[in-house]
Fold this sequence. Notes:
The chain is of the alpha/beta class. It has helices at residues 3-15, 29-33, 38-46, 64-82, 89-101, 107-111, 128-139, 153-166, 193-211, 214-223, 254-261, 288-295, 316-332, and strands spanning 16-22, 50-54, 57-63, 116-118, 121-123, 142-146, 172-177, 226-230, 242-246, 269-274, 302-306.
Amino acid sequence: xxxxxxxxxxxxxxxxxxxxxxxxxxxxxxxxxxxxxxxxxxxxxxxxxxxxxxxxxxxxxxxxxxxxxxxxxxxxxxxxxxxxxxxxxxxxxxxxxxxxxxxxxxxxxxxxxxxxxxxxxxxxxxxxxxxxxxxxxxxxxxxxxxxxxxxxxxxxxxxxxxxxxxxxxxxxxxxxxxxxxxxxxxxxxxxxxxxxxxxxxxxxxxxxxxxxxxxxxxxxxxxxxxxxxxxxxxxxxxxxxxxxxxxxxxxxxxxxxxxxxxxxxxxxxxxxxxxxxxxxxxxxxxxxxxxxxxxxxxxxxxxxxxxxxxxxxxxxxxxxxxxxxxxxxxxxx
Length: 333
């Protein structure tokens, strides 16, 4: 070993620390570490520190920064257990991503934000980006949620909207989308205008039925409390005391986007969601979502929130697919 290598090894040895985490006796170590230590193995694979478990004491050995992250991760997981949350591979995996990527991120805070509890389940953010997005919707009058498929842009916006309606914080919920023809002329499709438009709006109905009972939805729609309609139906209206969600906004024209944003009345809130990599407009037509990002800068009470592949909450392979496409598009540009 050279003199330089000897000094490097000495420095590394000096920075090794041991951090201990004591697990309260009322918690099963199996709940924390997983059956056959499957959750522990996920943690060990994600960090360079070594983890030794004896009874209810966890000892983490490694370089200071890494060992501290692992300790903080275990402390967050213990908080989740104390709150009654079951730890799964997905929960632990997302907690690892948070702790590794953001020194201030707290999984217990992110997972603890129940946006909406309905039909026996809770809708919660699953990433730091989603948590910031939900907070932005709560704290601003207009929010643009921009990101790839699977990041929860529309689903979380609708959950906040349904919660606001249920809590009587708003009088009306309006869900809308542009009816992009996607290669087929609406006039040539069979059925009434409503039947022709329905496929474009179906994803909004699907999300709504996951959050509310079908009978309740039907009753509120009959009263006009909930409205699901194509974007063209917004023209000429002033929407007071309403929570409006515009989905697939990348397929609006600049004129449609301006029309929509100027419908906003008193005591109303709007969330505009879209994926700027999935524009279905005819060649040469500018996207209203792209244009509006250049126009609405520095306006109070309006926020642009950007979600990324790290915020994809579908099957984990979807996250890899989205990231692969992002790299491919960057290489071509």
